[in-house]
Structures are given as structure tokens and as C-alpha cells.
Specification:
The structure is a single chain. This protein is 49% helix and 10% strand. The chain has a 6-stranded parallel sheet with strand order 6-5-4-7-8-9, with helices on both faces. A 6-stranded parallel sheet has the order 13-12-11-14-15-16, sandwiched between helices. The protein has a two-stranded antiparallel ribbon with strand order 1-2. It starts with 13 loop residues before the first helix and ends in a 7-residue tail after the last helix. By secondary structure, it is an alpha/beta fold. The radius of gyration is 25 Å and the shape is globular. The chain has 4 domains: 72-237, Substrate Binding Domain Of Dnak, Chain:A, Domain 2, CATH 1.20.1270.30; 245-393, Rossmann fold; 411-628, Rossmann fold, CATH 3.40.50; 646-670, no CATH class. The structure holds Broken Fe4S4 cluster.
Length: 670
């Protein structure tokens, strides 16, 4: 299928639109202009290109004369599409899991008192997590426990025999199903290597078998590397709970030293947050003519400090260049993943210092200040001081788009449990009851990236609004969460404006937004945990595949998104991807990932470019799951007559009628 170069309408974000215009006026390129100039390769886009050996690359594009082309070795379209997909999933799993490994190493360093500035922020979570890893807690110090937990986690990466520990956190029925079909991940690194090996030239050539292996690799991400990344981040930096903060380019300040953190890891960014509040550094900034230090983020490093420290966000993935285009960013500090190479060149056109920090990531033209957890505070101070020194170097006019919105991030699964009954009686019972009664039609996770091949944020926004109207409670992570935060969907008031009557009652009763921000893209594991809790709570079947719910990545672009989609499918969820199908060249592969996986594991993965069709299929799936559970069919008119909605109606009545409605009779005046 031919793909568009880029949409006419590049974004629905007015702040980004303003910066695109500025870039055009200045003659600078952006991701949008490059997307327009560089149409996607029609062969690669459909998964039709095989590059795994030097007899090719082979282009397996069917023609009238040759409807079933094969590669030089005889590889079919299905083998090639499946192999490409499996390699994407392995790369996504590697990225997430290596992030998890770094956090395990930081936890180990903290336990040995070798990590400058770090501490165990959530000892309660440490003890809960210790239970998952079989580490004894009684009579032991936090450090002793942390050491054993970190070492146990590191063992899971290199495990050669047995199973990863995280897989035991799935519902029992799922654990048995994985065992039956040989899908339980063994070691995290082992599964990545297994996929890379089996997709080497001359190995696995059965599309179904290749994809089966990739499913196990993806599960090693979801229930392994990503899950421990989330857990260890919470232990080290605090388990998120709701707080009000702000999002979009308007968070930049024209009279302060602006530092933007970008990438994925919380390790260095948490230290930058800390030192940017140090009085000596604030005084130093004032001495350079600024009124203070303004820290904000983009992408998922932003999500990490947004949900824990309430640090404002300059936006999602396609906002990264836009922040620099304001001319107001002194320093952009990046760690790993989703960092565009173009940032380096663009930063050079302004005064912005572009700082890479990961030992794995150097970008030509950047300043490299390598991060090392043993000297984290010193490194953070060096970066902040450098930004302050750069403040007097601003060139040209600063132009900060005046757009920003409140949001409420921080809905960890622990908080979601707590908000349904408090510290002592917290459970997932009220959520399950709301779905069972039909007050909530179902639940949806809308996650993932931006992609300039489609209008920025539009699919995220349109799909989520439709879900809310249809009483579907939405949880979001990553750039999807930041997208809808920009348009005001992640605040309590959004329930009044966008939610259907049943969902609105739930939001009013608990006091939550209709869209819950659950963290960064590695934190999709929090959604897995919620689904596992719902499945074991009772009333919605016994497995994740029974729950009336869906997962959507409407504007995906990253290999990590494919790994996430595959681990949700392997856990029993129906997952829909927008934009395009990277396996479009093989109907057989599309069928294996949808019908085949559904038969095998109860979950499936489909690629559906049209957002309206995504909503239609999602609601049909939710209703079918409701019917299978013998729950009442969803009725949009059944609820909405209680709570604030009811009070608002009553307030319109004359006093006597209102009292009669409330108390059965008018109340006599004293
Ligand atoms: S940052 S992986 S663009 S969500 Fe996590 Fe955003 Fe996707 Fe990167």
C-alpha cells in the first residue's frame, strides 16, 4: 500500500504549528519538512525488503508477471515479513530491558552505598517487590534487601534455564497457557538472542514459528525487563501519585534558564531536578541575569519527572525540535531512545547546548558528559552550571508559544488500588463492579508515540474522545498521555465535558480524570498489572483475555511500540496499531498475528490506519467480551442520574421542588 509522504495538516497542537511556521521563516528543517521531502520507502514500509544477507537485499514486491516473488535464497514474502517483525520486537525488547538493567545496576550501587545522591525512596514497594523475587525481608535492612533484589533481577537477564520471575505475576490461567505453548520467557537476554539467531540467514523459515518465538521475546519485555524497570524506578525515585502540573511549550520561560530533559531514564534527570533547586545554583543563575532555573522535559524522561516530581512537560515526541526552535532553551540533556539526530544541527543554529549523557549514545556535534551513577550529583551540577553559563549567549528573538494546559499525572497501579477504598480497603472491586454493571462499557489503554506520517496528536485525541463518550475508561502512557494532556483530557473537568454518563459518575465518585496518566512507555507494565488485578479480582473472567478492554497505539513509530503491542497480545489483549502495517506485504503474517494469535493466546495485533475503524473494532470487541461474560449489554441511557449530574439538574429546580426531590417533601423554613 502506498503511503503518504506527510499529511497536509501536520499537527493539531497550536504551539507546534507556531514553531513549524517559525522554522519555515528561518529556513530550518523540522521532522515535518523532512517527512514531506522523504516519502517512506514503499518496499520497506510493507515489510517486503530482506536485508539479512549479502545475496540481497531482496525486494519481494509482487507484480502481475511475478505475483509470488521470493528472495535469492527462496525466502517467501511471509518469511521476510515475519522475520522483519520479529527483529523489530527483539530490538524494542532490548531497548526497554536494557533500561531496566541499568536501573537494577543503580539499585545495586545504592545498596552498596556507591551511588552518589540516590536513596531508597519507597521502602514499602521494595518489600513488596522483594516478595516477587523471593527475597527475604524479615529482620533485614533496606540495603540488604535491595542488594538481593538487584542481584536476583540481574540473574533474570542472563538466566539460561528456568523462567523469568516476573512471569509469575500474570493470572494463573495465563501462566498455564504460556507453559502449554512454550511461551514462558526463560532469560530476558536469552529471548532477544533467540530471536536474532532464528532470524539469521538460513534459520527459522516458518512465519508462524518465527512469530511464536517473537511473542515469547516480547513477553520477556513486558513481564521482565520493562516491569522491573518500572518497579526499580519506583523504589529509587518514589511510586507516583497524582499531582497537578502543566504541559506544552508554554512551560518554557523567557526570563529563566531553561533546561529540557529528554529520552527515557529517570536516573540522571532525578538528580538534575534535585540540583536545579539548590540555592547556590539559583543564585548563580541570578548572577547571570536570569530570574531562576526552569526545568522541564519532553518524551518519556519528561513523563518520569512529571509523575514523580511534578516537573512540567514541554510536550511529546514531535515537540522535541520545537522546544529548541523557541530560542529559549539553554541546554537539552538527553539519555536514551527517541532522540532525533537533527537536534544536534538545530541546537547549533541557536545558542542551545545539546548534551548527550548515556555511555551508549553519542551524537555527532553534541557535548558528551557521560553519566555515571557513582558521581550523579556532580554530573548533574556540571550540566546545570553549564546551562546557566549559556544563558547570556541567547541569540536572536525568543519566541515561546503561549499554549499550556494543566494535567494530573501519577496514576500508578498502587494509587489506582488505593483510590478504590483507601490504604486498608483498597482493591479493584469497584472498577470491576463498574464494568460488570455497565456503568463503564470497558477499559482502553491508548499509548505510544507520535509519527509525522500522520497529523500529530489527532488520532490520539479523536480516538480517546470517542472512548470517553462511550463510557470507556482510558489509561495512557508515553507520548499518547502527553498528547491528550495538551488538549485538557487529563484533568477532572474533562469528565464533565467529554465523558458519557456512566463514566462521568465513576469519575465524580472517585474524583479522577476520565483519562489516567500511568507513566512513561516502559510503564505500560503498570497496565499489565492492572489487567492482572482485574482478572484475579473476580467477576470479569479469570484471565486478561476475558476483560472487556483493548490496547491502541494510534501514532506508533518505534520498535518498542511493536514489542509492547506483542506483549499485550501475548498477555491476552486485543491490540490495534494505527499509521500503517509493517507486514502489509504478507496477508499470511497479518492473519497469524490476528486470527492465529487469538486462537493461541486470546490476544491479537492488527494494523488499522483509520482511527474511526479502530474505534469501531474496539467497541465491537468490548461488547463481544461483555456478552461472553454474560454481562448486561451496554446501555448509554442507564446511568448518569446520580452524583454531580443529578445535583446540577436539581439546582435548576425551584427550591420547593428541589427539596421534594431530595427529601420527599419541601423542608419548612426555620
Ligand atoms: S517516548 S517510544 S515516542 S511513546 Fe517513550 Fe514517545 Fe514512543 Fe518514544
Amino acid at each position: 500500500m502506498a503511503r503518504e509522504a506527510a499529511p497536509e495538516l501536520k499537527t493539531i497542537d497550536p504551539a507546534v504549528a507556531e514553531m513549524i511556521k517559525r522554522a519555515e521563516e528561518l529556513g530550518y528543517s523540522t521532522v515535518f519538512s523532512r517527512a514531506a521531502k522523504t516519502p517512506p520507502c514503499p518496499i520497506g514500509a510493507d515489510g517486503a525488503c530482506c536485508q539479512i544477507c549479502d545475496m540481497g537485499p531482496c525486494r519481494l514486491v509482487p507484480t502481475k508477471a511475478n505475483p509470488e516473488p521470493v528472495g535469492v535464497c527462496g525466502a517467501t514474502r511471509s518469511t521476510v515479513a515475519a522475520r522483519n517483525m520479529a527483529r523489530h520486537i527483539a530490538a524494542g525488547t532490548a531497548a526497554h530491558s536494557d533500561h531496566g538493567r541499568d536501573l537494577a545496576l543503580t539499585l545495586l550501587a545504592v545498596s552498596e552505598d556507591e551511588a552518589q545522591g540516590y536513596e531508597i525512596k519507597d521502602p514499602d514497594k521494595l518489600r513488596v517487590v522483594a516478595g516477587y523475587w523471593g527475597v527475604k525481608t524479615e529482620g533485614r535492612t533496606n540495603r540488604e534487601i535491595a542488594r538481593d533484589v538487584a542481584l536476583a533481577a540481574l540473574d533474570d537477564f542472563g538466566r539460561q534455564r528456568g523462567e523469568i520471575k516476573g512471569a509469575k505475576r500474570a493470572p494463573q490461567k495465563r501462566i498455564e497457557l504460556w507453559k502449554q505453548f512454550d511461551l514462558t520467557p526463560r532469560g530476558i537476554d536469552r529471548e532477544v538472542v533467540d530471536t536474532l539467531h532464528r532470524t539469521h540467514m538460513g534459520d527459522d523459515q516458518d512465519a508462524e514459528h518465527i512469530l511464536h518465538g517473537s511473542l515469547r521475546t516480547a513477553l520477556a519485555d513486558g513481564w521482565g525487563g520493562s516491569m522491573l524497570a518500572t518497579d526499580f524506578s519506583d523504589i529509587l525515585f518514589g511510586t507516583p501519585s497524582p499531582a497537578v502540573t502543566k504541559v506544552n511549550l508554554g512551560v518554557l520561560k523567557d526570563d529563566e534558564v531553561n533546561i529540557v530533559v529528554h529520552g527515557h531514564e529517570p536516573t540522571l534527570s532525578a538528580m538534575i531536578v534535585r540540583v536545579s533547586m539548590e540555592p547556590e545554583l539559583i543564585e548563580y543563575a541570578k548572577a547571570k541575569g536570569a530570574t531562576g532555573i526552569n526545568l522541564c522535559g519532553v518524551c518519556c524522561t519528561s513523563n518520569e519527572v512529571l509523575m514523580r516530581q511534578g516537573i512540567a512537560s514541554a510536550g511529546n515526541d514531535l515537540n522535541q525540535e520545537m522546544a529548541i526552535l523557541t530560542g529559549a532553551v539553554e541546554t537539552m540533556v538527553v539519555d536514551v531512545q527517541c532522540i532525533m539526530q537533527a537536534l544536534s544541527d538545530l541546537a547549533g543554529k541557536f545558542h542551545t547546548q545539546f548534551v548527550t549523557t548515556s555511555p551508549k549514545v553519542k551524537i555527532t556535534g553534541s557535548t558528551h558528559i557521560e553519566f555515571d551513577e557513582h558521581h550523579a550529583l556532580d554530573i548533574a551540577r556540571q550540566i546545570v552550571r553549564g546551562a546557566i553559563d549559556n544563558y547570556p549567549n541567547r541569540k536572536g528573538q525568543v519566541q515561546i508559544p503561549n499554549y499550556l494546559h494543566d494535567l494530573v499525572p501519577g496514576f500508578s497501579h498502587e494509587y489506582i488500588r488505593y483510590m478504590q477504598g483507601g490504604a486498608l480497603r483498597g482493591s479493584f472491586r469497584p472498577l470491576n463492579d463498574a464494568v460488570m454493571s455497565g456503568r463503564l462499557r470497558g477499559v482502553a489503554g491508548v499509548v505510544g508515540c507520535n509519527n509525522p506520517r500522520v497529523t500529530q496528536d489527532q488520532a490520539h485525541y479523536e480516538i480517546v474522545k470517542e472512548f470517553l463518550k462511550n463510557d470507556v475508561l482510558v489509561v495512557q502512557t508515553g507520548c499518547g498521555a502527553l498528547a491528550n494532556a495538551k488538549y485538557g483530557l487529563l484533568v477532572g473537568e474533562a469528565a464533565l465535558e467529554y465523558a458519557g454518563p456512566g463514566l462521568r459518575e465513576v469519575c465524580e465518585a472517585i474524583g479522577i480524570p476520565p483519562v489516567l496518566h500511568m507513566g512513561s512507555c516502559v510503564d505500560n507494565t503498570r497496565i499489565l498489572t492492572v489487567l492482572a488485578e482485574m482478572a484475579t479480582e473476580g467477576g470479569l473472567g479469570e484471565d486478561i483475555s476475558d476483560i472487556p478492554g483493548v490496547g491502541i497505539a494510534p501514532e506508533w513509530m518505534s520498535e518498542k511500540a511493536l514489542a509492547i503491542g506483542a506483549y499485550f497480545a501475548g498477555s491476552g489483549a486485543y491490540v490495534l496499531f494505527g499509521v500503517n502495517s509493517p507486514v502489509a506485504n504478507s496477508e499470511e503474517v497479518e492473519k497469524i498475528m490476528s486470527e492465529g494469535w487469538e486462537k493461541l493466546v486470546g490476544g491479537k495485533m492488527e494494523f488499522v490506519p483509520d482511527p474511526k475503524e479502530i474505534v469501531r473494532r474496539s467497541l465491537a470487541h468490548i461488547d463481544a467480551k461483555r456478552a461472553a461474560l454474560k454481562l448486561p449489554a451496554y446501555d448509554p441511557n442507564k446511568y448518569g442520574k446520580s452524583g454531580d449530574a443529578k445535583m446540577n439538574e436539581l439546582l435548576k429546580l425551584p427550591l420547593a421542588q428541589r427539596q421534594a426531590a431530595l427529601y420527599g417533601a419541601p423542608v419548612a423554613a426555620e
